């Protein structure tokens, strides 16, 4: 009789074999066609016949800065294009919150590859053609939930676009159409929940809320806040990037873990300082090679996401990220000698149900970085004690005394896409 461990090991071996086949196919397509990668691969001594071991040992990392520089040198799309322009049917662009935006092109085949990844995700949660999907995002050039929405259409779900509607109108449409799945960022889900509560609008049919675009969906305090506002719905975290595609989904049985869909990606976790493989169980930078987006590939791409892998605690073959996306390599602020991550502030602030929204302001005083927190409270809360309570919680968790100011209701933005809570003033 085969044990659970043996079954997981066999499944893991199958994943590696699938990856190796996709890698060979990828290299055979891009070598000699893709100007950006052909030169890099040749310089590394790699070609279309190279195997996985040689690829991981010799292929250089790709960074966002290199892609940005290539697109600036060869506008508007750069040289990371495998096919003539006539083959490309989809255009995407990153938000550019951490520098120049990236423009990304996809062929119909590559777009379908991303929809297939969402199919795997939907299957894990038994989302079927009977579900009604409401997408609360702007449908702009940011990849966002475009692929999730179109995968739902292909699956046969009634798919409802929420672009161009205000928050109350979106809630009313969700209620009137009997929406069962909501796609949005964690920040906007909180905003919608507050608006639903204040307006007395109940969406009783909603069974899943799928969030992405921000790390909040894997932060326990943020999850608790969303659960408080949407008690009858199950929250599912998801993570991906415009330039790399849909990457991971929350374990259906344990929200602490995001599982990477490794049929579509080769995964590495490295020490961001040295580039060497991170020690097992330690925090490192996520590096991905996408294995099906051949028209605009990324090989050993340094995502900038900080993660900590675990040895699949629930007897599943896919790599599990403990705590989801823990932060960004470039997001950390050193405040009076203390490393402060945005996710740490989020985890503390969201413990207070009185807080509707917040913003972190970074400044420099005599060469030292200082941090100040601006907080907006929900209507009706007495503000007198809140600054001290939040300040004490921050001091206990971070060993830092951080000033906390209260701002008027409705002052701070609630964006549909990525929030920009950290500002330098």
Features:
20 strands, 425 residues, single chain, twelve-stranded mixed β-sheet, 11 helices, four-stranded mixed β-sheet, alpha/beta, 32% helix
User: Whole-number average pLDDT?
Assistant: 91
Q: How would you describe the shape?
A: globular
Helical stretch tally: 11
N→C terminal distance: 64 Å
Per DSSP E runs of 2 or more residues, the count of β-strands stands at 20
**Largest sheet: number of strands, sense, barrel closure:** 12 strands, mixed
Uncertain residue ranges: none
What report would you give on this structure?
It contains 11 helices and 20 strands. It is an alpha/beta fold and 425 residues long. The strands form 4 sheets. Strands 3, 4, 5, 6, 7, 8, 9, 10, 11, 12, 13 and 14 form a 12-stranded mixed sheet that branches. The longest helix has 27 residues, at 4-30. The model has no long low-confidence stretch (mean pLDDT 91).
Write the layout of secondary structure elements.
Elements: H1 4-30, H2 35-43, H3 52-58, H4 64-73, E1 88-93, E2 103-107, H5 108-124, E3 132-135, H6 146-155, E4 158-161, H7 167-177, E5 181-184, H8 186-199, E6 208-211, H9 220-229, E7 234-241, E8 245-250, E9 257-260, E10 265-270, E11 283-290, E12 301-310, E13 320-322, E14 327-328, E15 333-335, E16 338-340, H10 342-349, E17 355-365, E18 368-377, H11 386-398, E19 404-407, E20 422-424
Parallel strand pairs: 3-4, 3-5, 5-6, 6-7, 17-20, 18-19
Antiparallel strand pairs: 1-2, 7-8, 8-9, 9-13, 10-11, 11-12, 12-13, 12-14, 15-16, 17-18
Helix pairs in contact: 5-6, 8-9
């Amino acid at each position: 009789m085969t044990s659970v461990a043996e079954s997981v090991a066999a499944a893991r071996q199958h994943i590696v074999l699938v990856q190796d086949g996709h890698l060979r196919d990828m290299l055979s397509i891009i070598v000699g066609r893709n100007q950006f990668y052909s030169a890099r691969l040749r310089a590394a001594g790699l070609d279309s016949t190279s195997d996985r071991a040689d690829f991981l040992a010799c292929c250089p990392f790709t960074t966002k800065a290199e892609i940005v520089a290539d697109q600036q040198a060869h506008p508007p799309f750069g040289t990371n294009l495998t096919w003539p322009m006539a083959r490309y049917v989809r255009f995407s662009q990153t938000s550019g919150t951490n520098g120049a935006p990236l423009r990304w092109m996809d062929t119909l085949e590559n777009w379908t590859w991303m929809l297939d990844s969402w199919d795997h995700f939907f299957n894990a949660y038994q989302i079927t053609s009977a579900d009604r999907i409401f997408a609360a995002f702007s449908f702009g050039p940011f990849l966002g939930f475009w692929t999730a929405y179109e995968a739902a259409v292909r699956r046969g779900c009634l798919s409802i676009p929420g672009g161009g509607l205000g928050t109350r109108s979106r809630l009313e449409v969700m209620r009137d159409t009997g929406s069962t799945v909501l796609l949005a960022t964690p920040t906007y889900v909180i905003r919608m929940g507050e608006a639903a509560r204040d307006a007395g609008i109940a969406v009783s049919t909603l069974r899943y809320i799928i969030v992405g675009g921000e790390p909040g969906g894997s932060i326990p305090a943020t999850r608790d806040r969303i659960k408080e506002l949407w008690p009858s719905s199950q929250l599912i975290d998801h993570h991906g990037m415009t330039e790399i595609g849909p990457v991971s989904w929350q374990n259906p049985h344990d929200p602490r873990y995001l599982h990477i869909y490794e049929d579509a990606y080769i995964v590495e976790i490295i020490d961001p300082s040295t580039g060497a493989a991170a020690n097992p169980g330690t925090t490192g930078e996520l590096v991905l090679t996408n294995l099906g987006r051949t028209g605009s590939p990324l090989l050993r791409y340094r995502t900038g996401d900080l993660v900590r892998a675990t040895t699949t605690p629930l007897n599943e073959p896919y790599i599990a990220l403990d705590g989801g996306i823990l932060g960004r390599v470039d997001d950390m602020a050193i405040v009076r000698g203390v490393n402060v991550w945005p996710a740490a502030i989020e985890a503390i602030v969201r413990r207070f149900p009185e807080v509707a929204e917040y913003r972190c302001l970074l400044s420099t005083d005599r060469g030292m970085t200082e941090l100040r927190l601006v907080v907006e409270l929900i209507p009706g809360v007495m503000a007198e004690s809140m600054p001290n309570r939040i300040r004490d919680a921050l001091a206990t968790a971070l060993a830092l005394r951080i000033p906390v100011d209260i701002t008027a209701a409705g002052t701070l933005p609630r964006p549909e896409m990525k929030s920009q809570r950290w500002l330098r003033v």
